[in-house]
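Lecture notes, continued. The same structure-token format from the folding unit now serves as the input rather than the output. Read the line below as a description of shape only.
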């Protein structure tokens, strides 16, 4: 058993499988035994660029959570193929997303960062859970209805059972906490329902996961329509991608929609554009909104936009630099992903074996 690939924080799970015996003799072993951290699972599709919204609302928080939880950050490539993907682009984006996680400060030795398709447990549990999910439940999913409207030429069954695969992702590891955007609330709810139904029949197999929807007020809004959430599927100028070059960031900030007044003050309803910029600066520069209002008293929107661009560039530049370095060493990235996938596979067997035993496959 190659224990060295197991991130320290995960070893507690192995205690149940007696595998921990192999490391108990070491100093680390003692530490591992004391590990009672809860498990956090998050999945992101490698189907496009991540935005400043993803960074402020999610990835930055993961940095804070990585010490508190045993974290699993999955590149959900199996979810991505529910809409057509260009194979070479998908291959690249999987690596890019993993690199972005690491470049943003998530330590691949401490957290499990891997690609979903490399761990067959996701697909295996997905099938079992499909048999415990009702079509009536799936018919209610609003995201399915939205996607059907968007891709009328490719309404495939994968799109329909997407929430079941997501439930499998989460339940496969006994996840306690799932940080997701509010658009995923319904999917998390169905995961809880499926788990509860299964447990009701077979006893306590699955942990019922809780959602983590982040702090209110960290919702980054679109630069061109500040009443809507920043989204990568919107027009180019409405979002800042995490990999946007500094001059692109500056240009997009300059074009950000504000209002016809001149006063810089926080008011989400009356001044959504200005408030959005204030929030972005406040989130990234750790200054309060009040301090910023004072700082900008008597100044113009141009100053505010300049400052927002400075702050965003300062936050993203080191990440972009690190990302570039990582992408130049694809062999390292792939080895890291392979190793972590192997660890995730081993972890997944604990629950998958239990499920198979319970339903009569073993
Ligand atoms: N459906 C999620 C999204 O589009 C991605 C996802 C797949 C996910 N599996 C997950 C998120 C498990 C959290 C947990 O955002």
């Amino acid at each position: 058993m190659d224990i060295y690939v197991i991130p320290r924080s995960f070893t507690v799970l192995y205690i149940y499988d007696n595998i921990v015996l192999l490391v108990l003799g070491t100093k680390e072993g003692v530490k591992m035994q004391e590990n009672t951290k809860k498990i956090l699972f998050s999945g992101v599709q490698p189907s496009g660029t991540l935005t400043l919204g993803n960074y402020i609302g999610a990835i930055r928080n993961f940095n804070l959570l990585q010490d508190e939880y045993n974290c699993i950050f999955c590149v959900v490539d199996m979810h991505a193929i529910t809409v057509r993907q260009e194979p070479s682009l998908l291959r690249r984006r999987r690596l890019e997303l993993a690199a972005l996680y690491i470049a943003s400060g998530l330590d691949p030795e401490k957290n499990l960062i891997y690609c979903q398709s490399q761990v067959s447990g996701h697909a295996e549990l997905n099938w079992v859970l499909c048999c415990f999910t009702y079509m009536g439940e799936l018919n209610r999913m609003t995201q399915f209805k939205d996607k059907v409207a968007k891709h009328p030429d490719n309404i495939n069954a994968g799109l329909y059972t997407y929430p079941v695969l997501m439930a499998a992702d989460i339940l496969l590891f006994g996840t306690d906490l799932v940080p997701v955007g509010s658009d995923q609330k319904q999917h998390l709810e169905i995961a809880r329902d499926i788990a509860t139904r299964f447990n009701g029949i077979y006893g306590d197999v699955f942990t019922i996961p809780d959602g983590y929807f982040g702090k209110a007020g960290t919702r980054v809004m679109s630069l061109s329509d500040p009443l809507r959430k920043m989204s990568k599927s919107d027009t180019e100028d409405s979002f800042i991608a995490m990999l946007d070059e500094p001059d692109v960031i500056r240009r997009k900030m300059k074009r950000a929609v504000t209002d016809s007044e001149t006063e810089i003050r926080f008011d989400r309803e009356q001044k959504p554009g200005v408030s959005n910029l204030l929030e972005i600066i406040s989130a990234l520069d750790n200054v309060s909104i009040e301090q910023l209002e004072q700082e900008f008293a008597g100044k113009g929107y141009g100053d505010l936009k300049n400052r927002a661009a400075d702050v965003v560039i300062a936050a993203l530049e080191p990440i972009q630099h690190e990302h570039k370095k990582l992408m130049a060493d694809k062999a390292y990235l792939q080895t890291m992903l392979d190793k972590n996938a192997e660890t995730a596979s081993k972890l997944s067997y604990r629950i998958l074996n239990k499920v198979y035993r319970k339903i009569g496959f073993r």
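Point for the exam: The two ends are 23 Å apart (CA to CA).
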